[in-house]
Amino acid sequence: MFLQQIQKYSDNFSYLIADEVTREAAVVDSSFNAEEIERIIKEKKLTLKYVISTHGHSDHTAGNLDLKSAFGGLVVAHKLSRIGADLKVDDGDVLKVGSVEIKVIYTPGHTVDGICLLVDGCKLLTGDTLFVGECGRTDLPGGSSRSLHDSFFNHLLKLSDDVEVYPGHDYGSKPRSTIGEERRTNYVLQPRSVEEFVEFMKQP
Known about the structure:
The protein is of the alpha/beta class. 23% of the residues lie in helices and 29% in strands.
């Protein structure tokens, strides 16, 4: 499996996933990095199958149509997303890129359409749900601290400690982490009841 973290402009991360045998590929969160993603796809002679958005905010979807126009492929988003998508997905769905499996984990909280993507069971692309040492805000339209608590404590923190975390923004001390490291060091993920978490998220 090939996975590349791409950050050409701003603090947004995009990801390119590919099967190195079949050369099938998927882009996650095209953002403002479409030009660099196009360059890599051409250089590696990949076939773009999916353009996946972890949620509908424009800083994550900005390059979707450019990539679709250049290479084809299906734009993918959660079934509650308002972005133009060719394929709507829900929790537990699996997308295949060659032999690489990308499992959808529905993680609302930052937005109502938020998803994380577990790639081959070992790499988690978290969008704006979870950052290195932080989390996505819940005070924007569609945000919900209660939903984010559920996403963290009933879904993401059920994963193995050695699962690698690849966030949607370069907000932390390093570009990636692990579930175990975030469980131990991320102040957002310290044990809290739902009510305690809601109050915590109100703090400036």
